[in-house]
Amino acid sequence: MGYVDGYIWRTWGKSTVAALLERFYDPNQGAVHLDGVDIRSLDPSWLRGEIIGFINQEPVLFGTSIMENIRFGRPDATDEEVYEAAKQANADGFICSFPNGYKTTLGERGVTLSGGQKQRVAIARALLKNPRILILDEATSALDSESEHAVQLALDRASSGRTVLVIAHRLSTIADADIIVVLSEGCVVEVSNYKMW
Fold first, then answer.
1. What is this structure's pTM?
2. What is the CB neighbour count within 10 angstroms for residue 40?
3. Which residues form the signal peptide (predicted)?
4. What sign results for the dihedral spanned by CA atoms 22, 142, 95, 175?
């Protein structure tokens, strides 16, 4: 289990922090470290492919089966591993309710699924990859309260045993976080936790 630390003096927002961690670009000043190693020395494809799992507000789904959408997280995964990831993501129940189950073909961008169902497929994909770091970028912000509850249960399971970076506007989403970092106009203005507020 690793830790993430870094010094990011000027960023434009919360999602920028995630983009820096994934090495979509590098900071102008300072550095981002993973287990004490400057991530600029790491292969970005290895970092994104094996170390970091990313779930955002609008997950990317493809016009293929649910099985293949989940397997995209790790193409060499067995069917059993896909089923297990879906169970952990609280997705197996709704998938099995479809007439074709895991063979159900999704419309482009997953239009045949609800927002909560899309998120749980994305969580299953991330869990199949078994990343050491999980980034959740406003993962529940677009959901109704019922869907948010189902997705939050899945995220709680997904968070176990790994470092998790949660990007959120709502304090309720991050209430269980060990450390909460507040950004304003691209600068860190407070570091605390929920109990201290």
1. 0.76
2. 12
3. none
4. positive
